[in-house]
Amino acid sequence: MIKTIVFDAYGTLYNVYSIEKKCEIVFPNLGKRISVLWREKQIEYSFLRQLTGNYVPFYTVTKEALRYACKACDVSLDEEKESILLKEYLSLDVYPEVEKVLEQVNNKQLVIFSNGSRDMLEPLVKNSVLAEHIHQVISVDDHKQYKPSAASYYQVLKKLNLTREEVLFVSSNSWDIIGAKTFGFKTLWVNRKDAPTEEMEVRPDYIANDIKKISEIVN
Amino acid sequence: MIKTIVFDAYGTLYNVYSIEKKCEIVFPNLGKRISVLWREKQIEYSFLRQLTGNYVPFYTVTKEALRYACKACDVSLDEEKESILLKEYLSLDVYPEVEKVLEQVNNKQLVIFSNGSRDMLEPLVKNSVLAEHIHQVISVDDHKQYKPSAASYYQVLKKLNLTREEVLFVSSNSWDIIGAKTFGFKTLWVNRKDAPTEEMEVRPDYIANDIKKISEIVN
To answer: What are the alphabetically sorted keywords of the record (chains A, B) (predicted)?
Structure first.
């Protein structure tokens, strides 16, 4: 019996690629390339820091990933540009179907659980239409263990006083679904980009192209 | 004082992109794309399995990554094709400068330490000109902890009875260098593709485009 729906933030509720527009203004003709590289490197750096036991908050990871993306594209990132682009992470677009779905399932506890640090997550949620729908925001920064480690997901159970079976975990990131499912959550993989399913024995319980599927699962 | 040079295998001594030729024969016009995706996914899956505590040998990781790459390229991989392509991992090309450098530094103990399982590593070394130069092959499979975790590098010290300071660690994979340096090895990053340096505070001790630099460091 699902009591709580736990959402990943970046890529699941909020579109990280909405930063492409600002990247394009700051670096003409490179908006798409920089925004994609930035996101890839951000994920890789969070993996590497978890794997090597060298945690820094996601804001730092995000900044370092942006610096790498700019170097890889041979463009110079001064302090002003860096600050403009990092600020974009505080006002990402919400995916179009999200608000309505959250209204439909508001008989459940609705939680965001993200790798983002609180200085990123709290303004993001507050600045968005989701502020009134989300009951709680949990950051991995409270325990400094990144997703997809088991140690990170365990904090969700501990903070919310839940069992694994009471959680539906929703993410567009297949690595997050692999971590959450291995940990024991029921999972919905939001396959927004129509990507192939991962070739690992750990499979999501549900797959859909957006989060509308949730009301079917929990109602 | 360096006693032992520890080499990563894939990408450092052996060219994993030499599989492109066979991929191109099996899947015309897709050789490059499949070989690049295959390698990226192989690394990602090893990270994910380490992060989620769900170890399987690298042979399985490699097979699953190939299956994903083929799905992503919309081509069908039957058993015969899979077997042909996986077999390529047992006879990868050695980078051109490698043999001569190993001869020059053979006053040091020369060791391979790889994520590869022994069923992959042993035929690979044996089938290559490096067989007579490498004194020992260590596989993470003996302890089932993938690089770049500290637990993996620690096995090198234990098996060889060395201190961190006695090791020069050589890898073309920047994530492997980050792990090895965080663990405390002296490191040479073999930047074969002229990639930007990673934007993390952990930096390699030496950087060069091939392994010739080693004789300068240890002699």
So the answer is: Hydrolase
**Among B86, B88, B137, B92, which Cα is nearest to B115's?**
B137
> CB–CB of B109/B141 below 8 Å?
no
Q: Which residue ranges form the domains of chain B, and what is each CATH number?
A: 4-15+92-218 (3.40.50.1000), 16-90 (1.10.150.240)
Distance from CA of A86 to the nearest CA of B (A): 16
| Residues of B annotated as part of the active site | 8
Please give the residue of chain A at the shortest CA–CA distance from B65.
Answer: A199
Q: Could you report the per-residue pLDDT of B81-121, keeping only the tens digit for each? A: 999 999 999 999 999 999 999 999 999 999 999 999 999 99
Residue type, B108: K
pLDDT mean over B198-213: 97
Shortest alpha-carbon distance between residue B169 and chain A (Å): 16
Between CA A25 and CA B215 the distance in angstroms is 48
Question: Over the stretch A85-128, which tens digit does the pLDDT of each residue have?
Answer: 999 999 999 999 999 999 999 999 999 999 999 999 999 999 99
| B193–A contact, CB cutoff 8 A | no
